[in-house]
Specification:
This protein has helices spanning 2-23, 26-46, 55-67, 82-85, 90-126, 131-154, 164-184, 187-204, 212-231, 248-256, 262-273, 275-294, 299-316, 336-361, 369-399. It is mostly helical. The radius of gyration is 27 Å and the shape is flat. It comes from Limosilactobacillus reuteri MM4-1A. Pfam families: EcsB (PF05975). Keywords: Membrane, Transmembrane, Transmembrane helix. InterPro entries: EcsB_ABC (IPR010288).
Length: 400
């Protein structure tokens, strides 16, 4: 059983690594760099404005430490045929699940500690904490996560598996009680409460014979959520989409297309229906809006606006030659110049819309109208340059 889990863990890691390479491409890494930089800068600018011992700051800390206890799920790596082939291995499957729990707990504790580190500057700004109290706060977060993971383990058992309402309640109530004691009384009391709750969970939930039906479904649901995340960035065979009529997109297609031009209509419909292209464009737009809204007014805000408009334009470019391998598009009695003109129109409209949204968001939380107007003007100039000059350069490279 130890070798089985090690083998499955390696296969699982290689599967995730294959998708991570597609998700964390150059453009997405750059976007994340600016996003985290903007959030960190905004966070550092916000902390000095806080006063000490505000009544609402402790509520935020209680909520934060309750939420970070929910990060990281139990990964059993159980597969659908296991109830047939591993059913006689009663003791072996118990050791297997113990390995899975420890593996999941270690990864989850790392994320929990990171979450506690994020809240630490806020806590030091609003509370007077000694070094021992800071260490105690981290210990409370670690114990809360261990408590959460044992509750997740008992939810797969024959005795407790059908009481999912109880499991969901314990996921939130146990860390909430420890967090309330930690921030409304003191961290030492919070640690005592967290340890008592953890020991009570261990002692009370002892009969953990696996319920195969629940265990298989829980792992399938966990992997499906992982695949759904990867599917936001690339096509995942395990996630099958549903085809349905979307009347709301008719107006968007009419706006993107032009008259009776076949290429214009084809590009417009492809952009709307292709979740790979339209999805990443919409996500980049939303990400750019969040970043420029959090950034202070100045040259950095303008630089981010220019960068995200360029990223969006580069994501649209692969649409141009998407149908080169389709023989039927080559029998259209339409010159290549018309195809280029139709795609140039789509590129201009999409980038103009996204540039408008990002530039408007650059008004920021300080409501700097002057900076927003400057960004609007620069964004308009960039859209013209991208649709008229950058597109021609890229087409020449594609046609070589």
């Amino acid at each position: 059983m130890n070798k089985l889990f090690s083998k499955r863990r390696s296969q699982h890691f290689m599967l995730l690594l294959r998708y991570w390479r597609l998700v964390f491409n150059d453009h997405f890494v750059i976007a994340l760099f600016f996003l985290f930089g903007a959030l960190a800068y905004g966070y550092s600018q916000w902390l000095p404005t806080l006063g000490s011992h505000e009544w609402w700051t402790r509520l935020i800390l209680i909520g934060w430490f309750t939420v970070i206890a929910q990060i990281g799920r139990l990964a059993t790596l159980i597969k659908k045929p296991d109830p047939v082939f591993l059913l006689p291995q009663v003791e072996g499957i118990h050791r297997y699940l113990n390995q899975a729990t420890w593996y999941s707990l270690i990864l989850a504790e790392i994320m929990t500690v990171v979450g506690a580190f994020i809240a630490l500057p806020f806590a030091l700004t609003t509370e007077k904490l000694s070094s021992a109290e800071i260490v105690t706060i981290f210990l409370v977060a670690i114990v809360n996560k261990a408590d959460w993971m044992h509750v997740a383990r008992k939810s797969l058992s024959l005795r407790w598996g059908d009481q999912q309402w109880r499991t969901r309640l314990e996921y939130w109530v146990n860390p909430l009680l420890a967090s309330i004691a930690m921030w409304l009384v003191n961290p030492y009391v919070g640690l005592v409460v967290a340890v008592i709750l953890y020991l009570a969970v261990i002692v009370y939930y002892r009969d953990l014979a696996v319920n195969w039906r629940i265990a298989v479904k829980a792992e399938q649901d966990r992997m499906y959520s992982v695949y759904r995340f990867f599917n936001l960035f690339t096509d995942v065979p395990s996630v099958q989409g549903n085809t349905k009529r979307r009347k709301w997109a008719d107006g968007l297609i009419r706006w993107l297309s032009k008259g009776d031009q076949p290429w214009s209509y084809l590009y417009a419909r492809t952009f709307v229906r292709s979740t790979e292209v339209s999805g990443i464009v919409s996500r980049l737009t939303l990400l750019g809006m969040v970043i420029v809204f959090l950034l202070p007014a100045g040259w950095l805000s303008t630089l981010v606006v220019v960068l995200f408009i360029y990223l969006i334009a580069t994501q649209l470019m692969p649409l141009y030659d998407q149908y080169e391998s389709n023989v039927f598009t080559h029998i259209y009695p339409i010159p290549a110049s018309q195809q280029q003109a139709d795609f140039k129109q789509l590129l201009a409209k999409v980038t103009a819309l996204e540039a408008l949204l990002i530039a408007l968001a650059s008004i920021g939380w300080q409501l700097n109208v002057g900076q927003m107007v400057i960004n609007l003007i620069i964004a308009a100039v960039e859209v013209v340059l991208l649709s008229r000059f950058y597109f021609n350069v890229r087409v020449k490279k594609l046609m070589k």
